[in-house]
Amino acid sequence: MQLHQLTAHEMHDLLINKELSSEELNNHIFDRIEAVEDKIKAYLTLTKEGALERARSVDGQIQSGERIGPLAGIPVAVKDNICTKGIRTTAGSKILSNFIPPYNATVVEKLAAAGATIVGKTNLDEFAMGSSTENSAFIATKNPWDTGCVPGGSSGGSAAAVCAGEAALALGSDTGGSIRQPASFCGVVGMKPTYGAVSRYGLIAFASSLDQIGPFARDVTDCALLLGVISGHDPRDSTSAGYKVPDYTTFLNNNVRGLKIGVPEEFMAQGISPEVRAAVERAMSLYESLGAAVEYTTLPHTEYALPTYYIIAPAEASSNLARYDGVRYGFRAAEVADVVDMFMKSRSQGFGPEVKRRIMLGTYALSAGYYDAYYLKALKVRTLIKQDFDRAFEKYDLLLSPTSPTPAFRFGDKVDDPFQMYLSDICTISVNLAGIPGISLPCGFVGQMPVGLQLMGKYFDEGTLLRAAYTFEQNTDYHKEFPKI
Amino acid sequence: MTQYETVIGLEVHAELKTRSKIFCDSTTEFGGDPNTHVCPVCLGLPGVLPVVNKTVVEYAIRAALALNCRVASFSKFDRKNYYYPDMPKNYQISQYDLPIAEHGYLNIEVKGEVRKIGITRLHMEEDTGKLVHQGNITTTPFSLVDYNRAGVPLIEIVSDPDMRSPEEAYEYLNKLKAIILYTGVSDCKMEEGSLRCDANISVRPAGSQEFGTKTEIKNMNSFKALQKALTYEAERQIKVLKEGGRIIQETRTWDDEQGITLPMRSKEYAHDYRYLPDPDLVSMVIDREWVEEIKRSLPELPDDRKERYVREYGLPVYDAMVLTNTRELADYFEDCVAVYPNAKTVSNWVMGDLSRLLNASVVGIINCPIKPEQLGALLQLIEKGTISGKIAKTVFEEMFATGKAAETIVKEKGLVQISDEGAITAIVEEVIAKNQKSVDDYRAGKERALSFLVGQVMKASKGKANPELVNRLFKERL
Ligand SMILES: [Zn+2]
Q1: How much distance in Å is there from the Cα of B177 to the middle of ligand 1?
Q2: B360, CA 20 to 30 Å: which among A73, A292, A474, B373?
Q3: Alpha helices in A104-213 (DSSP H)
């Protein structure tokens, strides 16, 4: 076992036992990045100086006998749509290729307060729109298990960084599956918390009513630790919930006895590969053998989730992305005739094709004469989808499904067929529409490629998700596998 | 020959004078170097989120209640999407289908007739920045943008199409301004842009119930401009119709220099705003108890105060209306009456000499150099006979110029009225001795001769002799 393969809580033990300094740990991670980044391309920006500076300060605290938190001195990667003061934040887009935020996202301040070191900013699909990270304006991140395969997306850089040992932990954002699907493709743990659990302040918005920041980790314990650090009410985000953040580590019990788990049959049907289905069925059997009650159930409006999502998310995006016009910051086209020409050229040269596609979809859905038929209808269907979950949760403590219908696909397989690409989020988007929490954890392999298991919970019941995920992990070894890079 | 009736509705924007902006902590202070009253939120930088300033909601409710509106129990913010460089996000956060208040009214009085003008709705929104051009706008190669005003809170008040003449529109705006000023939520300064007014206007044959095609008039930057623009536009529309033409629904701008309305390029204003509920802001449930609390905190409003002045002080309706037009003037009047209870005398002084001096200087009533108690004290001096009414006018001007108390001025300048009978008798006898002809005239029945004699005494006493006493002494002797 190498240092970069350790979990954050194992690293923490080494730090407080003074077997390793944070500076050494961080230097090691940067060495690792040096060694593999050419092959993986997880990062858009590295912030070694800042990381080492904070590492030394944490080392000072340890030396002087201060108690440190679980993430102090631990290297964390941050998705590049989360604003970092003084550090370029691009959202994977040419239009923000030169944008340096004058402020930190709330989660970045929380990481700083926890003493975590920030390794760098990770690659993503432009404005988090995509499922393979192929839509980045800059680089293509590779899946560490097979560099011919995509890492998933849109938080592909964060997933790959954690998977390849280029960071212990990472932050991603999840609008329709953008944390869980790449976690599944890269064989790591990824969680989308309940909408409102984590502040969105400083997250470059894609679809405001769906976006949520969440953790990537190499095991469930680390996931619980990072979730605990980033959660909580933020007065700067009106949609963040006022609730008391529990100590999530108290849920890490190897015990699912009596837990009622429903498996929505709709999530096991459309386009699911037989190997993924088999892996999920093995997980169902394991939970049963551990004393949980597992049965099939139904979420009848699931077939409408994808069309609903592809109206609401682009509609919000078309408005959220209107501000990128070349006037105040970011890319501005050269040689323009007047202000309207400047808007048009800056935007048509600054945005990539998938972003343009979604802006057009959303603009159309909100246009006079179409609003009622599309946007308003979609909001109503969204309510029906929520009600499906409400009904299911009257009966079950959590729901179980594959995270994605297939393991990671190969580069270029779906990039020219947007609809096929959209289908890879079929199991994850309902969770965003409903606003409930979901977690993905490794549950097997197809060949050498990991398969992800998704667990979905009640609003603000991340605890039960963590308990069930932890139990699964304690009784399997999938999380102990590492890609050979 | 067809007679035409004009139909007018107004859309008024008033800036709320909260300390910070509607969705961030930046100051709302007027002026400042360009782009100094800004922060990431009002600049719409990537990733920032708006948070509603609760005082904005409170002020909007305050104005709504003063305008007899029904305050919603459930309200939300929406995004109004359009591209313009003075808008940091290329959408304006406003309210669309669930405004904070609806169904209000106010009363106006035109030619002695009271008319009720309906208020359709009142909603909250954010102001935009402004474009600044160096040199000539048509030749400058670039525009600069100042975002200091971006995010300043506004309320928009939309009237029903209830006004039937430019005079009524003028009175409506005047009354609306008076009421908002009373509530203290806005400065309502049209010159500084904290009060803005657009109008919808159409004409129709008198007696018709259907509305004609309307035009929207923008860029009226004063009360006078409003009245002139609407008068012009009504005449223009009537002329078009009389010549057999049709009115085009369009937005027109008032050109104050030429005194005409001109069509704005219709393309620029043919917007589809693609409203959507702002997903960054949660909808608002308005607590009824809070609304009641705001209602209780409202001051007495102009109409109520006017009626009370007539009832309580016995003032003529005209006096009551003028005095209650602004809260400050009415407060001044009442503070003065507290010292000197003859309300009509106070009203005469406030509406007469005081208003004249205030208008001539640039000082507003709030900074009036004569405090209301000081005016009261002056009026007491007249009543006690310490000074004459005529001397009082001089003292008053001196008070306005120096801010000194009436008694101080009277003492310093030796203006105390002479009521000492011995002293005045001496002067009276001297005047009689020197003006035998006038004495004879008076004795022959010429009343006017007495005025001359009294005048001579006043002159000799430098105006300080008590005129009543002088009159009596003459009558005793002649
Ligand atoms: Zn601001």
Answers
A1: 28
A2: B373
A3: 106-113, 156-163, 180-186
User: Does the pLDDT at position B267 exceed 50?
Assistant: no
Q: Do B46 and A103 touch (CB under 8 A)?
A: no
- Closest residue by Cα to residue B249 from B235, B264, B239, B230: B264
Q: What is the pLDDT of residue B410?
A: 74
- Tell me how far apart the alpha carbons of residues A224 and A348 are, in angstroms, rounded to a whole number: 42
DSSP-derived 3-state class of residue A137: coil
Closest CA to B212 of B203, B221, B222, B220: B203
Q: Is B160 helix (H, G, I), strand (E, B) or coil?
A: coil
Six-digit token pair at A412?
Answer: 């270029």
Residue of chain A whose alpha carbon sits nearest to that of B43: A328
Nearest to A91 among B44, B46, B272 (CB): B46
Indicate if A401 belongs to the active site: no
Q: Which residues of B touch A (CB under 8 A)?
A: 40, 43-52, 79, 81, 83, 85, 88-91, 143, 145, 272, 274-276, 279-282
Q: How far is A337 from chain B (nearest CA, A)?
A: 10
A253/A471 Cα distance (integer angstroms): 7
Which residues are bridge partners to A78 per DSSP?
A121, A171
Q: What band does B193 get if pLDDT is binned at 50, 70 and 90?
A: confident
Per the annotation, the verdict on A178 as an active-site residue is yes
List of domains in chain A = 3-256 (3.90.1300.10)
Tell me the C-alpha distance between B25 and B228, whole Å.
40
Q: Taking CB atoms and an 8 Å cutoff, what residues of chain A touch B47?
A: 81-83, 89, 101, 105, 201-205
Identify the pLDDT of residue A329: 94
Q: What fold does the segment set B421-477 form as a domain?
A: Arc Repressor Mutant, subunit A (1.10.10)
Chain B positions in Cβ-Cβ contact with residue A82 (cut-off 8 Å)? 47
- Cβ within 8 Å of residue A281, ≥6 positions away: none
E strand map for B256-399: 260-263, 276-277, 284-285
Ordered alpha helix ranges (H), A17-147: 22-40, 48-63, 106-113
How many Å from the N-terminal Cα to the C-terminal Cα in chain B? Answer: 74
- Residue B140: predicted pLDDT: 77
Active site residue A79: yes
A101 to B46: CB separation less than 8 angstroms, yes or no: yes
Domain parsing of chain B, residue ranges: 4-293, 300-413, 421-477
The model's pTM is 0.90
Q: Which residues have CB under 8 Å from A194's CB, separation 6+? A: A212, A241, A435, A436, A437, A459, A460, A461, A462
